[in-house]
Design brief:
This protein has a 16-stranded antiparallel β-barrel. It is mostly beta strands. It has one domain: Porin, CATH 2.40.160.10. The chain is globular and about 75 Å long. The chain has 4 helices and 22 strands. A hairpin with a 4-residue loop joins strand 7 and strand 8.
Length: about 450
């Protein structure tokens, strides 16, 4: 992922004049059309349930605002629609409360991708329809249990990619409020309410056809590979804490895991989250830490393992304006991996690898639906033979710039440019076949509909 400084300069050097002219005309027509539209309200699953506009919870989906974070922490159960209710004989305890309609929604993404230099053996200027086609069961099940369940077809396969089923309740300790709950989920950090963790940080959509760096943190690669049960609490709307334990639950693989499996968790993988938040006037700030420590078998369910420890620190700031909102996000992750190797004599030895990731971005969202985001990413780490580049180093950095428009609250058009300064260890000839980091610069246009 790459961000904005060199981006239009580099793209101008890499995209031919003919393509630039075509894109320029297309962009001009798009802007003229967008500026002529007005925003109206739209009501996907949670909006239908609550009777509120999508903008009540989002600056620009999927980024949550303060109300959206509270809605999620409290179990997705706030409802304004008619429900079917039954109480016990004393008429004091609700035994049944069903929404009058199923909380179903759908999402479709279609996209266009142009890479600065053709990847040998592949076609450039690719179009995907769908890039993603998702169905959601998202809403209240009982007065204290709600769901976010996403099932997606990505053009190749169908699976349950994101699940967060929550129980939430409230109590008081003295005069101080306390929210507490349980989460059952299949993707570390999908239950998180801040847009700094891997599941929800910028960019929320990216090209599947683009070249991306070879290495990322283990937390970014466990989705749909595990299932976890966790407990969380929010004290005085100030301090949030969570602990979740994950176990292997791989989709499309043997169950229980066997010798054909990969990335099987040994024991359980603990995940933790601690955050401090505060809101005053038109400002909101949160700082925190999160991490995970899995031990994974390299193949099957026995033998050499890779032991990971990801420790991350993050911060988020928001400021609402009369004409829109500003937000800033940042996260830094330090990962250590102890990887086992089997010697010729059959003895297991290990080697330690370090990997660091920095992600920052700033966003401006206007009430007329226009938005702009500028982000920077940086990865750096030890030499790793699994990277597969000339240098065997996972060092990459660059900028991402995105312009977006929401003519309706459930519809997004986004134009994104990724510009690489370094890719898999070097600026020039990273693959020893003459390909440079800037050759992977990517122009990406996505249409994203929720209904």
């Amino acid at each position: 992922m790459n961000y904005f400084t060199n981006l239009f300069v580099v793209s101008g050097a890499k995209i031919s004049a003919k393509l630039s002219a075509k894109f320029g005309k297309l962009l001009l027509l798009l802007i003229v059309f967008l500026l002529s539209c007005n925003i109206t309200n739209a009501l996907p699953s949670y909006a239908r349930q609550t009777g509120m506009s999508c903008s009540a919870c989002h600056f620009s989906f999927p980024e949550l605002n303060s109300f959206g974070r509270q809605f999620k922490m409290n179990g997705y159960v706030l409802t304004g629609m008619t429900s079917i209710e039954a109480k016990d004989d004393s008429n004091k305890v609700t035994k049944l409360k069903l929404l009058s309609t199923l909380p179903l929604s759908a999402m479709v993404q279609s996209s266009f991708t142009h890479i600065a230099k053709d990847v040998p053996g592949t076609q450039n200027n690719s179009v995907t329809l769908p890039q993603q086609l998702s169905v959601f069961y998202a809403g209240q099940i009982t007065p204290h249990i709600g769901t976010f369940i996403q099932m997606t077809y990505d053009g190749h396969s169908f699976g349950m990619d994101n699940v967060d089923i929550r129980y939430a309740n409230q109590t008081r300790i003295g005069s101080t409020g306390l929210v507490y709950g349980l989460t059952l989920n299949n993707n570390p950090a999908v239950q998180d309410v801040w847009n700094t963790s891997p599941a929800w940080r910028f960019p929320s959509a990216g090209s599947d056809a683009a070249k991306t760096p070879a290495k990322s943190s283990i937390m970014e690669n466990l989705g749909s590979q595990v299932a976890g049960l966790g407990a969380y609490t929010l004290w005085n709307n100030l301090i949030f804490a969570e602990v979740t334990l994950y176990r292997s639950a791989q989709q499309g693989a043997a169950n229980p895991a066997d010798s054909s499996s990969a990335m099987v968790v040994h024991g359980v993988a603990p995940y933790w989250r601690l955050a401090l938040q505060h809101q005053w006037y038109n400002n909101y700030i949160a700082v925190g830490t999160f991490g995970i420590a899995p031990r994974l078998y390299q193949t099957g369910t026995s033998g050499p393992m890779s032991k990971f420890r990801d420790i991350a620190f993050d911060a988020q700031y928001e400021h609402t304006l009369p004409f829109g909102a500003l937000s800033f996000h940042g996260s830094y992750t330090h990962e250590t991996e102890t990887r086992d190797f089997v010697t010729y004599s059959g003895r297991i030895v290990n080697k330690e690898y370090d990997f660091n990731t920095l992600k920052v971005d700033g966003n401006l969202y206007l009430k007329n639906g226009l938005g702009a985001t500028l982000g920077y990413f940086y990865t750096q780490g030890s030499k790793d033979e699994n990277v597969g580049s000339w240098s065997s180093r996972p060092d990459s950095n660059g900028f991402i710039a995105q312009l977006e428009y929401l003519p309706w609250y459930n519809t997004k058009f986004a134009l994104q440019y990724v510009a690489y300064n370094k890719f898999d260890g070097t600026i020039m000839n990273y693959d020893s076949n003459g390909r440079n980091a800037a050759d992977n610069n990517t122009l990406y246009l996505v249409v994203w509909l929720n209904f």
